[in-house]
């Protein structure tokens, strides 16, 4: 039996761009306590790793953005004491504010005789060392799942380099290894050959509906084409799949484009709750689906337009109806009866 056969994720992503010292701060400790009270089985614990620009070949621990290893260890120990499993998720962020998905380099070429630079080789050599460092931390602290990257669209086509990253991580870490592939879009083929070397494929899932205010049943129905498409991905890769990111904002019309972070609008907690319930209903009967990590638990970025008169319109769920959906799902309830609101 594979060690992912019994793996199932009901979790949240925690600490994206939180900065050094956050996990040990009063605010961070309060959020850890709130997560533990939610009843989730997993948490994605994020370690932000810096890269000067999207064209840099080296990444490093930044004293402003990167949590200290001791912080990560303390957070892991706290979650474990509460019976919550951890996915350690190092994430590259570019200090020039360019999205990590744009990291890309020219192929090795020689325009000037005698000068030849292997940008991809340099980047992957450093990236492998970075992943090895966090793999060691994961191994030493009993982390249950390790994620070797997130939405590195420009890097994913480098088929010859990724297997080396995976091999190095597996020399150190003996748990299941995953990768968070970029946002799934209906009709978009995003599979890489090296995905088959993973134990579990993660996908960012923010597929919406054309209906402005769908019920749970309608949302689940609208997601059925995605169920079929992702089942085909599982057949192609030969590994099970989970949603390493999945979310929707608590904003009016939020289910139309759940990934949309910059649109304005009034608060609508039920829309967000319906999205979570609809996703769970659509995929729960699929044996190859291994759950989801809700994006996200805490908001660390500057999003002033999320503050609206009737409530926060961001992705977070604490204190919103979606938190009750998550709590009931984690308790073993599957939203599959009528259109009953799980947030009731």
Query: In what range is the share of β-strand residues?
Result: 15-25%
Structural class: alpha/beta
- Estimate the helix proportion, in percent: 25-40%
Morphology:
globular
Brief overview:
The protein is α/β, with parallel strands linked by helices and 344 residues long.
Would you mind describing this structure in some detail?
The chain is α/β, with parallel strands linked by helices. The protein has a single domain, classed as Glycosidases (TIM Barrel, Alpha-Beta Barrel), CATH 3.20.20.80. It is about 30% helix and about 20% strand. The protein contains eight helices and eleven strands. The protein has an eight-stranded parallel barrel with strand order 1-2-4-5-6-7-8-9, surrounded by six helices. Helix 3 (about 120-140) runs parallel beside helix 4 and helix 7 runs parallel beside helix 8. It is globular and about 65 Å long.
């Amino acid at each position: 039996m594979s060690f992912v056969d019994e793996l199932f994720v009901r979790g949240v992503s925690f600490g994206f761009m939180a900065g050094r010292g956050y996990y040990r701060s009063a605010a961070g400790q309060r959020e850890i306590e709130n997560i533990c009270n939610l009843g989730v089985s997993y948490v994605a614990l994020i370690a932000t790793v810096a890269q000067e620009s999207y064209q840099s070949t080296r990444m490093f621990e930044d004293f402003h953005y990167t949590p200290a290893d001791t912080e990560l260890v303390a957070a892991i120990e706290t979650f474990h004491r509460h019976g919550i499993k951890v996915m350690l998720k190092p994430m590259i962020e570019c200090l020039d504010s360019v999205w990590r998905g744009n990291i890309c380099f020219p192929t090795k070429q020689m325009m000037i005789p005698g000068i030849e630079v292997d940008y991809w080789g340099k980047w992957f050599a450093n990236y492998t060392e970075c992943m090895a460092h966090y793999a060691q931390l994961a191994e030493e602290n009993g982390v249950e799942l390790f994620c070797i990257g997130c939405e590195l669209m420009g890097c994913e086509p480098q088929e010859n380099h990724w297997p080396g990253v995976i091999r190095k991580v597996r020399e150190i870490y003996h748990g299941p290894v995953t990768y968070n592939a970029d946002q799934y879009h209906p009709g978009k083929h995003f599979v890489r050959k090296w995905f088959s070397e993973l134990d579990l494929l993660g996908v960012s899932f923010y597929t919406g509906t054309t209906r402005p205010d769908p019920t749970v049943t309608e949302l689940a129905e609208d997601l059925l084409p995605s169920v079929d498409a992702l089942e085909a991905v599982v057949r192609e890769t030969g590994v099970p799949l989970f949603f390493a990111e999945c979310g929707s904002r608590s904003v009016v019309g939020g289910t139309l484009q759940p990934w949309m972070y910059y649109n304005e609008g009034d608060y609508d907690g039920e829309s967000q709750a319906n999205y979570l319930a609809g996703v769970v209903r659509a995929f729960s009967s699929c044996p190859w689906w291994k759950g989801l990590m809700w994006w996200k638990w805490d908001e660390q970025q500057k999003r002033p337009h999320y503050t609206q008169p009737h409530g926060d319109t961001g992705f977070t769920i604490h204190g919103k109806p979606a938190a009750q959906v998550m709590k009931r799902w984690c308790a073993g309830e599957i939203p599959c009866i009528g259109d009953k609101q799980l947030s009731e």
